[in-house]
Amino acid sequence: MKYPAIILLTLIYFFLGICTASTNEWSLPIYIDAKIMHTLMIGMDSAATDGFDIDADRAAPPVPPVGFFAYIPCNDTRYSYIPALWFDIRAPGDSAVWMIKLANAEVPVIVEWNPDSLPPGYVSIAGKDMRKFKGKYNVSTNDTTLMIVYRKDLPIKNISNPMAITFSIDAPANVRIVISDRNGNVIDTIHAGRLHAGRHSIPWNSLQKPGVYLFRVEADGVEIDTGKLIMLGGK
Known about the structure:
- The protein is mainly beta.
- It has one helix and 17 strands.
- It is globular and about 40 Å long.
């Protein structure tokens, strides 16, 4: 009876491994078309970290001054010379946010993916559930930032209705938005990348509890705007 027991335990561990991998490890190709096609990859893998991983991520070249270019901004202290990614694979976790920049878009941008490749859980694009689309999303005119949010569990109501942080800058600058709670603890940072002069509206797909939050907008490291976000609870 010893060998059947060993075989049974082996099968149990095998199936548990499959379930764990399918839940915690996944990849999703994102195809972005504006007459020029770009393929980005997001996902999670146990061999990756939240920084740049040579074996998991793929660096993108510098953003050209003209011509459409879709990329994921990269802020990594170890590889500070890599400003952008085409593949961004993270360490497995309960939630993650990917920000995709759409540079020099002169025509409507179309985003496509394979619905069968979506991981278990909740995945949204621009605050909308990706499972409600048939693998295709038309980006709103003049949008330069596209956010994809993954959450292992079902989200609270606010995630499907992202709040927008609106501000203006006088000249092109690298913009960062820091969000903190009422006690001053930083809970989220949005690296919006280099934005052109003018008015911008950046969505915040919050994974936080209902309450009052503060934001600070920085352009090239200088504070240019502050404000308050009030998140209501969902039923």
